[in-house]
Specification:
The complex is a heterodimer of chains A (about 475) and B (about 300). By secondary structure, chain A is α/β, with parallel strands linked by helices. Chain A is about 60% helix and about 5% strand. In chain A, strands 3-2-1-4-5-6 form a six-stranded mixed β-sheet. In chain B, strand 6 and strand 7 form a beta hairpin. The chains are: A alpha/beta (about 475), B alpha/beta (about 300). At the A-B interface, helix 2, helix 3 and helix 13 of A face helix 2, helix 5, helix 10, helix 11 and strand 9 of B.
Chain lengths: ~475, ~300
């Protein structure tokens, strides 16, 4: 049984669950303690020792069901599939077996009398010999089903069947009854073949569980954002959510590393009172990492809408990493969209900001105008703790870029980071005014894929605001 | 302590706590393997209650460590009673004088005092905090570390050290090893990710909102005077409210409060007016209340 459990742990690991060797050892020890009598208990035992994240529970449940088949339920299922059993047929077969010296092949016995669980066990051992561990793709299902099926000696079954029917005939059974028996056996044979195929399909799902998802994720992470289809945008949301979690987890880790600091005289003196005024314990000031205030300014014109969407999702999923987030959307007119994020869930707020904010979505991008409006209304609310994150392609449609606005903003804030969803080779060509804005920015990054976006935001959260303090 | 999972389940039941198979299994394993249990789940599903029931079932004393931001070793493990030490040295000044009176030189005097160090660094002057109490306890105890996610990550690392072999070293006294391995229960509301190390060390139990049948049983058990039709209606409504997209879904303890209040109000069945007027017991956020009110006919549908 230990091997089965270890094998199962292998499946879980393939499905991207993190399980340490010590947890595997625990699982083995624990299952030895409770035993295997009760399936629910066994499942609870493995879950308690292996599943440490709530998000892994669905994976665990599915794989557990695939791996540790509920054989009893399977038998019931088979019975149902075969329809109501014909007691007369059974009786006849039993009588035959009792009366005559009937030497039947093992497989025939299984077909005639086997319960679902026994059949499944036979298929399983067949699968082990058929090299099922090489199963990787859906296209192989047919091939492996055939391979397993070939391991059984069907000709023997045929022979036995003929033999039985002949014997019954000599006993003077009427043709109707004969047909019924033949029908019964054929039904069972068919059910068995179906079980083989199901077994292979289950194996495939078990082996490749979530592999497809992982593949999609890897592909999507490097795909240019403007080229995403509507489907891919939906998938990308989970990718971004995952990215946000990764950044957050890493942050918790890094916070732990910062323990040094200057002496906190107030706490030291207060603590010294219990030692008669002697500063026995020196209290250190905890370095409070200053969370950045973030202002995001997103171009939401068609060409860069996807990039804005994911940037907004990422930033707002990381809300707790910032002390305050405010978001603005513009095409030419600019409007604050923060309030949507305060009232709606992130997803809905983004859709609102991209489609229904009080700005004209159908005009041509005008960065200069948007920035000048922004400077006029918001300049006073900015301070040295604020970081401005601009997302846009800086394609200004030959309008006045008003680069002075950005210079003015830069003087007020801690820094400006510009993310450009267009490839670097295009900057400054045609109506791109990136080179005019770039000198006022601290960081200018190309941000064509979700991978690049993740890198920039990760940097922002972890390193950016530590600089220059 | 327990013979089987069934026994655990049965004894929980006797102690008036509805434990699912999963809960019973994890508790059984924890007792058998001497492992801490980490319970995660939304607020108010009975995480702390589980530990309390456990003490009742096993008739072991409960030692509770409530975590909060800024909790440190001194408050969790032990502290020297420095003031008392100081007071004693003051009172004993003369005796100390006598002790070193015949010392020929300063080094000798120091050596003599050093010989007496044990008198001042002994258990007499040690004030044990929850963790040390659990380790020093004469009889087996249940140690509840409540809301571990509220403490800082550093504290978690320290706790992990204590929990991995149930011993602590006090420099002046040496290593203190637990006489009995305590039954340790940690709870977390998932305010932040706990470290992998701690999770690895613990058996993990996720308690979610109970299934309708379980919740019905809980309400019947805890509010025995409730009419059975009303109990069913309450469970139905609560489960539907949880399915709404709320800021904070009603917990088990809140549905119990609600059931109790309905009993006090002598209600026989749920009608919209009654629900609306008692809703604040169940749902606490302004916006959530609005939402539930808006979906009232859906909530009350059988």
């Amino acid at each position: 049984m230990d091997e089965r459990i270890l094998d199962f742990i292998g499946d879980l690991r393939r499905a991207e669950m993190r399980i340490s060797p010590s947890e595997a050892v625990d699982a083995l020890a624990a299952s030895a303690v409770v035993g295997l009598r009760d399936r629910e208990t066994f499942k609870a035992t493995l879950a308690a020792t292996l599943v440490k994240e709530a998000r892994d529970r669905a994976t665990f449940d599915r794989l557990f069901d695939l791996y540790f088949l509920d054989l009893q339920a399977l038998g019931e299922g088979l019975k149902k599939a075969l329809g109501p059993e014909d007691p007369r047929v059974r009786e006849m077969l039993d009588r035959l077996a009792a009366e005559e010296e009937l030497d039947l092949d093992e497989l025939t016995e299984l077909m005639l009398r086997g319960e679902g669980s026994e059949m499944e066990m036979a298929i399983r051992s067949g699968g082990e010999h058929a090299g099922l561990e090489r199963l990787m793709y859906f296209l192989q299902v047919g091939y492996f089903s055939r391979r397993i099926s070939d391991r059984f000696d069907w000709s023997a079954v045929e022979r036995d069947l003929e033999k039985i029917l002949r014997m019954l005939e000599t006993q003077g059974l009427d043709p109707g009854a004969l047909a019924r028996i033949r029908n019964y056996l054929e039904l069972r044979l068919e059910a068995f073949r179906r079980m083989i195929r199901q077994h292979v399909e289950r194996e495939l799902e078990r082996r490749a569980y979530r592999q497809g998802e992982k593949l999609t994720r890897e592909v999507l992470a490097d795909k240019p954002l403007f080229a995403l289809s509507a489907d891919e945008v939906a998938q990308m949301r989970t990718v971004v959510a995952r990215l946000a979690r990764k950044i957050k987890d890493a942050l918790a880790l890094r916070q732990r590393q910062e323990q040094k600091g200057r002496i906190d005289s107030r706490r030291t003196i207060r603590h010294s009172l219990q030692y008669g005024g002697i500063p026995m314990e020196v209290m250190l000031r905890r370095r409070h990492r200053e969370k950045p205030k973030l202002v995001t300014i997103c171009d939401v014109s068609d060409s860069v809408r996807n990039a804005s969407r994911f940037m907004l999702q990422l930033v707002w999923s990381l809300q707790e990493c910032f002390s305050r987030v405010r978001s603005y959307a513009f095409v030419s007119e600019i409007a604050e969209v923060t309030q949507a994020f305060n009232t709606y869930p992130v997803e809905r707020a983004i859709e609102w900001a991209l489609k229904a904010a009080p700005i004209d979505y159908h005009c041509r991008s005008d960065f200069g105008y948007a920035f000048s409006r922004f400077v006029r209304t918001e300049l006073d609310s900015l301070d040295r703790k604020t970081t401005i994150l601009v997302l846009g392609d800086a394609r200004n449609n030959y309008n006045d870029p008003q680069a002075w606005t950005l210079r003015l903003l830069r003087e007020r804030v801690k820094g400006i980071i510009w993310l450009n969803p267009e490839g670097q080779w295009g900057w400054g060509i045609g109506d791109s005014v990136m080179p005019l804005y770039a000198p006022s920015c601290d960081i200018v990054r190309e941000c064509r894929t979700i991978g690049q976006l993740g890198e920039v935001v990760d940097n922002l959260v972890h390193r950016w605001w530590r600089r220059g303090r | 302590m327990f013979e089987s999972v069934e026994e655990v389940q049965h004894r929980f039941r006797e102690a008036r706590y509805i434990a699912t198979r999963r809960i019973a299994t994890v508790v059984f394993l924890a007792a058998r393997m001497g492992r801490p249990v980490l319970i995660e789940g939304p607020a108010g599903v009975g995480k702390t209650e589980l530990a309390k029931t456990l003490t009742e079932m096993t008739s072991r004393p409960l030692i509770r460590l409530q975590c909060y931001e800024g909790l440190d070793e001194g408050k969790a493990l032990y502290e020297w009673k420095y003031a008392k030490q100081l007071l004693y040295t003051q009172l004993l000044r003369e005796r100390i004088g006598e002790l070193i009176a015949d010392a020929p030189s300063l080094p000798d005097a120091v050596a003599k005092i050093a010989g007496q160090e044990d008198a001042f660094f002994s258990f007499r002057f040690l004030s044990p905090r929850p963790l040390l109490s659990a380790i020093l306890a004469e009889q087996p105890v249940v140690l509840l570390v409540d809301e571990i996610d509220k403490a800082e990550p550093e504290f978690e690392a320290f706790l992990l050290e204590v929990l991995s072999d149930f011993q602590v070293s006090v420099p002046e006294l040496g290593t203190l090893k637990a006489r009995h391995v305590p039954l340790v229960v940690l709870t977390s509301n998932n305010a932040r990710e706990l470290s992998d190390g701690l999770k690895r060390r613990c058996l993990h139990l996720f308690i979610d909102f109970p299934a309708p049948a379980d919740e019905l049983e809980i309400i019947r058990l805890k509010v025995p005077e409730i009419p059975s039709r009303l109990a069913e209606a309450v469970v139905n409504a609560v489960q539907k409210i949880r399915a709404l997209d709320l800021r904070k879904a009603p917990s088990v303890s809140e549905s119990l409060d609600w059931a109790r209040s309905l009993v006090i109000l002598n209600a026989k069945e749920l009608d919209p007016a009654l629900v609306e007027s008692t809703l604040t017991l169940l749902v606490k956020h302004e916006k959530d209340i609005e939402r539930v009110k808006g979906a009232l006919d859906k909530v009350l549908a059988p």
